[in-house]
Structures are given as structure tokens and as C-alpha cells.
Design goal:
This protein is α/β, with parallel strands linked by helices. It is built from 5 helices and 5 strands. A 5-stranded parallel β-sheet has the order 2-1-3-4-5, sandwiched between helices.
Length: 116
């Protein structure tokens, strides 16, 4: 069974890139542009991993979204993404250790992928 991956990213170009790179690894990938679409995405079943942008639309905080996802599913392999180093430092301070700076290289993406 392929790993299910959720992407929460408001930049369509980043979402498309992630979907393409993760898709070639055999993952089943679903992307949403923000928190408004998140409940419907979560109703499709459990995810094995998630990539969450810190700076989401409508003032949503990706760090808080990430912590909420981990409360619901502690085994979730979660990666926080941002183009702002200060956001990634804030994520680390909140206990989110897997971080992906944007823009990222394929090798940086590979380094944060969950096994399997």
C-alpha cells in the first residue's frame, strides 16, 4: 500500500513540485491550499506523512496546524516548510524537528522523507 502524504501549501508551484517529486516515490499525494480544505482532506483517511507550510492564507499558522495534526495522529511523519529561517526556528522551538527550507533541492527533500 502506498504511503499517503498530505501537503498543506498555498503556493501552487511548490505544491505541484512536491506532488511530482513525491509521486515518483510511489506515494499517494493529496494537496490542499490552506486550512479551509483541511477537514475534507482528513476525512479521506489517515495520512502517513504531511508537509505543512508555516505561512498559510487567512492568517493560519502552520506551526499550530502541525501541532494539531500531531495531536490527532502522533505517529504522523510531519515536515514543516518555510522560506523564512525565523519561521523554521519557531517551528523547532515548538518541537517540530523536521524542517524543509524553501526553496529546497531534491536532496534536501530526500533527507526529510519518511522511510518506506
Amino acid at each position: 500500500m502506498p504511503r499517503r502524504t498530505l501537503i498543506i501549501e498555498d503556493d501552487p508551484s511548490v505544491s505541484r513540485l512536491l506532488m511530482r517529486l513525491l509521486g515518483v516515490t510511489g506515494r499517494s499525494v493529496l494537496a490542499v491550499a490552506g486550512t479551509a480544505d483541511l477537514p475534507a482532506a482528513l476525512e479521506t483517511g489517515p495520512f502517513d506523512e504531511a508537509f505543512v507550510d508555516v505561512d498559510l492564507p487567512e492568517g493560519a499558522d502552520g506551526i499550530q496546524v502541525s501541532l494539531g495534526l500531531l495531536r490527532q495522529r502522533p505517529s504522523l511523519h510531519l515536515v514543516v516548510m518555510s522560506g523564512d529561517a525565523a519561521h523554521l526556528e519557531r517551528a523547532s522551538a515548538a518541537g517540530l524537528k523536521r524542517r524543509l527550507p524553501k526553496p529546497f533541492t531534491p536532496s534536501e527533500l530526500q533527507a526529510v522523507l519518511s522511510p518506506g
